[in-house]
Specification:
Helix content: 55-70%
Bound molecules: fe (ii) ion
Number of strands: 2
Distance between the termini: 37 Å
Structural class: mainly alpha
Radius of gyration: 22 Å
Oligomer: single chain
């Protein structure tokens, strides 16, 4: 309680006050305590988090599209119900994350407008197409698998609202990964054509999934600050390596190959070595020129327009409620 009370003591607005606020923030970081919305924070910390959380929210919402494509064509009622639940979860993740980002001073409208205008980024992975049912399984297994690898360290992120949102998100992501693996296992135990379909999807998704961890540590523009601020706990390259090591064993259980001739166990490192990632492709896709970027944004814009009446009705409803005299 003592430290909490100390934090709330007003500090005068002056150069000395700024230094004191910065000092308290640094102490909080060093002690591994979370930063909450009412706490003072450096402007660069706030901006970095706002950028990361809003991009994360956009990724969840745009990420509903590639799999949503298969809800009406799922091969059984059971698979349809599972996929529907999974895609709804992703929408929910977007909502928690927009709410967390709002605590940093940006409105949901501003964030959504930036996405729809093409100014905000979202994960490059959702700009790839889903031509077969096996893509749904591979997204669950590899894309959600990579998301979990990225997101588990975020449960310990220094910003409280983000860390708490991630705890819930991660629980749901582990169901997503299992449903994908289960779907693929069923297909691998099926016909030769189904096995070929799975292999084709794995071949298409493997490299884009490795790109999900972001540029190599030496090239990553924001990594150093994010590590110092406790937003990021483990580097891009280390997370990517952990993912590859786990995926190789899972691919063996499934009986699928991974499309990398340089993938082999390195006993000295105690990890799998893997081939070079095509970073030019990553840059192209993240800057708007991937296979489905235009289609994804067009779908989001159409959904936003079609939902205008819902937003208007909700605003009108809350206006009416607010104007009603309070019930006894
Ligand atoms: Fe998600
Ligand atoms: Fe997911």
């Amino acid at each position: 309680m003592y430290t909490q009370a100390l934090d709330q003591l007003p500090i005068e607005h002056s150069a000395q006050g700024d230094a004191l606020r910065q000092q308290r923030f640094d102490q909080r970081m060093a002690a591994g305590r979370t930063v909450e919305p009412q706490d003072w924070m450096p402007e660069a910390y706030r901006k970095t988090l706002l950028r990361q959380i809003s991009q994360h929210a956009h990724s969840e919402v745009v990420g509903m599209l590639p799999e949503g494509n298969w809800i009406s064509r799922a091969p059984s009622l059971e698979r349809k119900a599972i996929l529907l639940a999974k895609v709804q979860d992703e929408g929910g993740h977007g909502l928690y994350l927009y709410a967390a980002a709002e605590t940093l001073g940006s409105s949901r409208e501003e964030m959504v407008d930036a996405l729809l205008a093409g100014r905000a980024k979202y994960s490059s992975i959702f700009n790839y197409p889903t031509p077969t049912w096996a893509d749904v399984g591979v997204i669950g297994w590899l894309v959600d698998g990579a998301a979990i690898m990225n997101q588990i360290p975020l449960c310990r992120c220094s910003y409280g609202p983000y860390a708490r949102a991630m705890i819930r998100v991660c629980r749901e992501e582990s169901f997503h990964q299992r449903q994908g693996f289960d779907l693929l296992l069923a297909m691998m135990r099926g016909t030769e054509a189904q096995r070929r379909m799975v292999q084709g999807a794995v071949d298409r998704w493997w490299w884009p999934v490795l790109m999900m961890f972001g540029p190599s540590d030496t090239e990553s523009a924001h990594s150093a600050n994010s590590m110092a601020w406790g937003i990021k706990r483990i580097s891009n390259d280390e997370l990517r390596q952990r993912f590859v090591d786990a995926a190789v064993a899972q691919a063996e259980v499934l009986g699928v190959g991974l499309p990398d001739p340089e993938l082999r166990w390195n006993a000295e490192r105690g990890h799998y070595d893997f081939g070079a990632i095509d970073w030019d492709e990553f840059k192209r896709v993240i800057s708007g020129d991937g296979p489905c970027n235009r289609e994804r944004l067009a779908a989001r814009r159409a959904a936003h327009e079609a939902g205008a009446w819902v937003r208007e009705a909700a605003a009108e409803h809350s206006r009416k409620r607010a104007s009603r005299p309070h019930a006894a």
